[in-house]
Structure formats: structure tokens, C-alpha cells
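Dear H.,

Thanks for agreeing to be a second pair of eyes. The structure we're designing against is below in C-alpha cell form, covering all 428 positions.
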């Protein structure tokens, strides 16, 4: 990249969660293959982030590329209103087959946040059909569900800085986040807050929404499956539908195809995204039960009121199909299980290091929680200079590598993390 390109990017282009005044400079990636990102200076670095949980089979995957090329020769896009097409039908068939029997109807959309908006709108219309004006949602603190308005309104009020948008965000209900962690003892007291809120507001609540088992960027916590089980039971007691946001965890990341399988419960609505196209093009899906879909369809509007321009984009559907076909060979199970073992072996001992307060591993997710905030600029630079791509977040250094990463490549990632947590100058 030329000097002038770097300067142009710096001056004119917004990056995620960045300031336009003195932003942290970005690294320019010119290509990617397998687990490697190739920088402009020809240096190859190992991606520990899978481009935010999505590139699960690595970059430039021949099977995914072939599916895209094959589809582009037929058509890149066609409107979905009044028209259907084979890639969408094949994908929805696969999604229904992959998920529990109860989830029977699929709404495709452009991104995770939109899949959440869709789920929320569905439940508002669902209750309208039943003659009730319910509009509040109950969730748990430390959640993250996306950056659009409804998604923000159910994300952690402090992390997503609700007060910036005050009065514009719907006023939802927040229970305390569970403290019982996945691998430790279940503490009944975790339920108190949720139970109290659902009891007191049961006739106002349109739905419960949460990330099953893994709370993602809201804190990277893995909570106890018993919590999810009991929450589901409480929802059933009050006939309140529950939405599971598996946008980050879906498609094998936690060691199960879906994180809710750890608890043996099934949602009424399921949101999928991120890894659905193996990190190639944006796509998301909201799956519901037949009962919810049918109820919405008899609402005042007579239909579900949503329809994005690029709904069911054929290129995205075709590559999602290929991605799911790779998953169906079940190789991911052994890959994720091996990553889990290696991450546990390499990262858990870091708990004895001075600036580390907790280390957690679940499936292909490794989290090192530190005592100080990372200096993002210096730490990212340190990682890149040492041949890896890891984006620290507040006090968290976490990795969600592609499932295809080799033992040596993963050792490299965890070795560099080990060096980083020993280096006080990389923290604020
Ligand atoms: C990333 C994410 C979203 C939002 O998805 P986008 O595609 O970024 O809009 C929602 N929920 C969870 C759990 C996520 O990790």
C-alpha cells in the first residue's frame, strides 16, 4: 500500500469503533490463505480471530471459492420478493435439518444485528396476533447482540453505553448475569434476579433473549448450562418465548454444533450469522417454530413486516451451503476438540502470571483476562511484530482461531500471548 493510500484511509475511512481524530493506524491486508493474513509488506501473520469468529475453515478455501464461482456464473443476485431460487431453498433445507425439529421456518437477512431486529419484530407481532401489546424484552447483563437500535437496547447498558442514545432506545429489562462458570459448581443464587423480574413482569414481557453459554464481547464469560436450563423452564412456566443468539457460537465454536446443546434446551427463535458463510460474505438467519410463524401470519398486518433488498442473496446462500457441507463431514468436531485440549494445556497455566486474573477455555475459544487494560496500539503492534493477529479488548486477550489451525500455528499464538501477558509495558 502506498503512503498516500495509508494516509487516505487514516483521514477519510471509518473503521469499527474508531475515532476520526487520531485513530489507531490500521494494518493493510492484501490477501489471506488458510490461517494466514498477508500484509502489504509481504509478512504473513496467523489470524487468531477468524475475522471475528467467521472464517472457521480458514481463508481462500477451495470448496467455498468454487461454490461462489459456480453461482456467480448463474446470477449474483435477484430480488426475493415474489421470486425464489435454488441456493436459498437448499440453504434453508440444510438449516432446518441442522437445527432442532421445532425450528421450522427461516428468515434470511444481511447481518447478525438485522437477524436480531427480525427476531424482536417477530415477537412484537406474535403478541399483537394474540391480542396483547407486549413490547418489553428481558435479557441478562454483559450481553452483546449487535449495533442496531433494538439490538443495542438488549445489549449490556453499560458496555453499549445506552445513555448516549437515551430516550431513543426501548426500555428493556436486565437481570444480573450468572456468575457460575461453565466448568465450576452451579450456584442457585444466580437465578434470583432473573426469577424476580420475570415473575413481576410476566404479562409485559414479549420475549427473553440471551446468548446461550458464551457471553461474547460483553465479557467473554462461559456460564453454567444449569442456568440456561432453568431460564428456559421459567420462560415455559410463563409461556414467554425465548430467543437464542448463536451468531457468535453457532456452527461448532464451543465444541457443540450449537452452544444450547450443552444445556439440552431448544429455543423458540434462533439467530445465526458470522460463521454461516465461513467468513466469505455477510448473511444471517432467524429460525422460528411453526407456531410462532403461523401466529405472526394472522397478525393485523397479515404478514411479517420485513424484507431487505439483498434478502437471500444467491452468492451468500451458495457459499453458506458449501460451508455447511464442509461442517457435515464432522471434521470440525475433532478439530475443535483438539484446539480445546491444546488451548487448555498452553493457556490455563498463565493463571499464575502476575497480570492475569482468569483464564478460560471452551471449545475453540481461549480467553486470558488481565488485571490491566490492554494498550491496544502497543499490544497489536507487539502481536503483529511477532507474527500473529490478535485484537485485545479491554482487559481481555482472547482467540477464536480457524478450526483448521495446526498444532504448531496454535502454539505460536499461545506463545505470543504468554509473552504479552508478561510484558507490563503493553498494558495501561
Ligand atoms: C457479532 C454479533 C452480533 C451482530 O452481528 P453483526 O453481523 O455484526 O451485525 C450479534 N450477536 C452476537 C452474539 C454477535 O457476536
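And this is the sequence the design step returned. I haven't edited it by hand at all.
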Amino acid at each position: 500500500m502506498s503512503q498516500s493510500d495509508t494516509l487516505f484511509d487514516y483521514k477519510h475511512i471509518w473503521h469499527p469503533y474508531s475515532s476520526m481524530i487520531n485513530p489507531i493506524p490500521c494494518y493493510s491486508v492484501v490477501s489471506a490463505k488458510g490461517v494466514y493474513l498477508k500484509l502489504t509488506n509481504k509478512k504473513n501473520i496467523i489470524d487468531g480471530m477468524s475475522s471475528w469468529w467467521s472464517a472457521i475453515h480458514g481463508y481462500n478455501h477451495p470448496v467455498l471459492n468454487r461454490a461462489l464461482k459456480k453461482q456467480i456464473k448463474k446470477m449474483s443476485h435477484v430480488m426475493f420478493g415474489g421470486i425464489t431460487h435454488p441456493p436459498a431453498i437448499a440453504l434453508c433445507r440444510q438449516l432446518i435439518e441442522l437445527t432442532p425439529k421445532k425450528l421450522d421456518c427461516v428468515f434470511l437477512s444481511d447481518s447478525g444485528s438485522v437477524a436480531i431486529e427480525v427476531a424482536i419484530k417477530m415477537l412484537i407481532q406474535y403478541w399483537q396476533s394474540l391480542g396483547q401489546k407486549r413490547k418489553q424484552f428481558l435479557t441478562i447483563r454483559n450481553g452483546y447482540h449487535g449495533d442496531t437500535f433494538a439490538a443495542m437496547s438488549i445489549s449490556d447498558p453499560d458496555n453499549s453505553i445506552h445513555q448516549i442514545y437515551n430516550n431513543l432506545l426501548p426500555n428493556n429489562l436486565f437481570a444480573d448475569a450468572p456468575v457460575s462458570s461453565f466448568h465450576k459448581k452451579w450456584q442457585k443464587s444466580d437465578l434470583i434476579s432473573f426469577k424476580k423480574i420475570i415473575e413481576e413482569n410476566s404479562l409485559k414481557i414479549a420475549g427473553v433473549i440471551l446468548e446461550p453459554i458464551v457471553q461474547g464481547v460483553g465479557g467473554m464469560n462461559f456460564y453454567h448450562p444449569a442456568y440456561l436450563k432453568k431460564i428456559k423452564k421459567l420462560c415455559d412456566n410463563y409461556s414467554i418465548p425465548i430467543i437464542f443468539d448463536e451468531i457468535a457460537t453457532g456452527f461448532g465454536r464451543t465444541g457443540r454444533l450449537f452452544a444450547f446443546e450443552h444445556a439440552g434446551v431448544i429455543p423458540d427463535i434462533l439467530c445465526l450469522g458470522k460463521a454461516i458463510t465461513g467468513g466469505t460474505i455477510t448473511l444471517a438467519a432467524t429460525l422460528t417454530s411453526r407456531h410462532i410463524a403461523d401466529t405472526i401470519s394472522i397478525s393485523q398486518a397479515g404478514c411479517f413486516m420485513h424484507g431487505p433488498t439483498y434478502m437471500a442473496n444467491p452468492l451468500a446462500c451458495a457459499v453458506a451451503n458449501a460451508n455447511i457441507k464442509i461442517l457435515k463431514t464432522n471434521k470440525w468436531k475433532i478439530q475443535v476438540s483438539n484446539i480445546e485440549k491444546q488451548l487448555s494445556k498452553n493457556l490455563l497455566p498463565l493463571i499464575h502470571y502476575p497480570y492475569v486474573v482468569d483464564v478460560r477455555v471452551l471449545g475453540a475459544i481461549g480467553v486470558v483476562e488481565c488485571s490491566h487494560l490492554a494498550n491496544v496500539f502497543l499490544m497489536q503492534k507487539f502481536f503483529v511484530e511477532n507474527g500473529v493477529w490478535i485484537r485485545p479488548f479491554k482487559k481481555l486477550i482472547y482467540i477464536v482461531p480457524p478450526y483448521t489451525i495446526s498444532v504448531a500455528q496454535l502454539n505460536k499464538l499461545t506463545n505470543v500471548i504468554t509473552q504479552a501477558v508478561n510484558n507490563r509495558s503493553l498494558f495501561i
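Two observations from my side: DSSP finds 13 helices and 16 strands in the chain. Residues 235 and 241 are 7 Å apart (CA to CA).

Warmly,
E.
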